[in-house]
Amino acid sequence: MTPREYHHPTTDEITLTRVLGALSDPTRLEMIRRLADGLDHDSLELADDLPRSTLTYHTRMLREAGVTWTRGDGRACLIRLRRDDLDRLFPGVLAAVIANAATEVEQG
């Protein structure tokens, strides 16, 4: 079985407008909050009770904006943040988004 190939923008192709657009959705914000630990996560762990097509849409939006890395591992789709790239390009933005998302979860 051939591993799935995913397109990721190069660091030079990542723009603040696309990153903020990808992070403007509450579902994707929750995904980022879950990815904040820096580990690879199976895409199925990133959102509760979403149809697979909706989950795929949201993970694609994050990947195409340059927010995440995605790789196939057997039947799993593993995703992690592009923290180093985003911190270098837009210092403090990702940390602020993660902190805000965590605060919203705590406030209910």
From TrEMBL:
This is Helix-turn-helix domain protein. Residues 8-101 form the HTH arsR-type domain. One of its GO terms (molecular function) is DNA-binding transcription factor activity. Transmembrane segments: none annotated. It comes from the Bacteria. It comes from Corynebacterium glaucum.
